[in-house]
Write a structure and sequence with these properties.
It contains 2 helices and 9 strands, in the order βββββαβββαβ. It is mainly beta and 169 residues long. It has one domain: Nucleoside Triphosphate Pyrophosphohydrolase (Alpha-Beta Complex), CATH 3.90.79. A 5-stranded mixed sheet has the order 5-1-7-6-9. Strands 2, 3, 4 and 8 form a 4-stranded antiparallel sheet that branches. β2 and β3 form a beta hairpin. The longest helix has 13 residues. It is globular, with a radius of gyration of 15 Å. The chain starts with 6 loop residues before the first strand and ends in a 14-residue tail after the last strand.
């Protein structure tokens, strides 16, 4: 961090739900991950546990009900991001990650609320890095290796996603 950086700090709880080579993601339409795939999850509500947050966010953002298998750990990312009418230069995103097992529901019924433009199951082999948030990148890494990186990840040249892959057709 240098003296000219102003960080907005965001803490959230997220789930990694995958099956048959596909990962459940949402399409972001707001925040630093706009026009990229992100994991279902988000901010805690009053009197809500981290696990309850993931379960609620999955229903709200994807229409999918999940069962939490285990907590995988915490990741933090520093992402260059400026938002109109705010003085911050970066988002310090602290993400608590859970392994989530599909219970029921269909992404065809995923609501488009807040900063989500619906959900989908994406083929991890076809995922492009420029289409993925840092959380999705780490989720794919964890699925393939069984490990999450320990060190914080910094993205000083971060830009909103620009491909049409993350937009609803």
């Amino acid at each position: 961090m240098n003296d000219k950086e102003v960080w907005h700090r965001h803490l959230g709880s997220y789930g990694i739900c995958h099956s048959e080579g596909k990962l459940l993601v949402i399409r972001k339409r707001g925040g630093p991950y706009t026009r990229r795939y992100d994991l279902p999850g988000g901010s805690l509500e009053p009197l809500q546990s981290l696990q309850q947050t993931v379960e609620r966010e999955f229903i709200e953002e994807s229409g999918i009900r999940i069962n939490i298998k285990r907590c995988l750990g915490t990741r933090d990312y520093v992402v260059a991001w400026r938002r109109e009418n705010f003085d911050h230069t970066h988002c310090h995103h602290i993400a608590i990650l859970y392994e989530a097992l599909y219970a029921d529901g269909d992404v065809a019924n995923s609501p488009n609320i807040d900063d989500s433009d619906g959900a989908e199951w994406i083929d991890m082999d076809k995922l492009q890095l420029e289409d993925a948030s840092p959380l999705v990148r780490d989720a794919v890494h964890w699925i393939r290796t069984g490990h999450l990186p320990v060190e914080a990840a910094r993205f000083d040249d971060w830009k909103f996603g620009g491909t049409s892959a993350c937009r609803r057709h």
